[in-house]
Amino acid sequence: MNAQDDSVVGRFWAEALGWGVSSEGPGVTNLEPVGFTYPDPVAVCIDVLRVPEPKTVKNRVHVDLATTSAAHQADLVARLQDLGATPADVGQGDVPWTVLADPEGNEFCVLEPREIHRDTGPIATLVVDCADPRAMARFWGEAMDWTLHEVTDDHAVLRSAKGVGPYLEFLRTPGAETVKTVKNRIHLDLRPYPGDDQAAEVARLKALGATPADVGQGDVPWTVLADPEGNEFCVLTPA
User: Which residue in 64, 114, 207, 228 has its CB near the most CB atoms, within 10 A?
Assistant: First the structure.
């Protein structure tokens, strides 16, 4: 997650999720559940990275938060606003979930209680706006070892093969077919398993349809690629 002030945004999300905070270096705030041991799929952790540019357009990628009851939803919305969240209008109309924005304007949803999210942890879903959920399901279903739970013309849903943690949803969204003009402020990082070869994994992803992406990363140990709809993601070195 990009931010002009990683410490402010990091503190907000740590309080929002009830997670711990650390830092691997200047300009980076790392968030993960207390006691978490990587690569446990029970959570998808968040790294907040400082960038100079401000947010200028609606994010194509956002987080949905889970709730367990109507009272919990109302209490969470109130608590998040006390922490610095503000109401956001992304054209959602009359819906049972609440759309908010974090201190730097990153939109996110506080969902109404849903049975499917009863065991996801605080993050229910990472949602990616797209033009073609079926095509995205084909790419990401091969890119990761997650299980495809559902795919239609309107959305595709994946989750860890272990059946734990948040879901990843590709949601058909009006306007998503337009050409991206700025890099995503929220993106996925993929890490090969111990013993796997990073270059071989990059080659495999390119064969699936990924393309090289330049976001100004310079000489770094990770490789930046883009999925078939231009969403950037990073392939890290093996753990």
Answer: 64
In this prediction, residues 73-96 reach a mean pLDDT of: 97
Does one domain contain both 88 and 180?
yes
User: For residue 168, which of 151, 184, 185, 183 has the smallest C-alpha distance?
Assistant: 151
> How far apart, in whole angstroms, are the C-alpha atoms of residue 100 and residue 97?
10
Among the three residues 144, 166, 186, which one is the final residue of a domain in this structure? 186
Q: Could you read off the pLDDT of 165-192 as tens digits, one per residue? A: 999 999 999 887 777 788 999 999 999 9
Strand order in the sheet with 232-235: 188-190, 232-235, 223-226, 211-212
Closest CA to 16 of 70, 72, 77: 77
pTM of the model: 0.95
- The first and second tokens of residue 33, run together, are 């559940």
**Residues 71 and 163 both lie in one domain:** yes
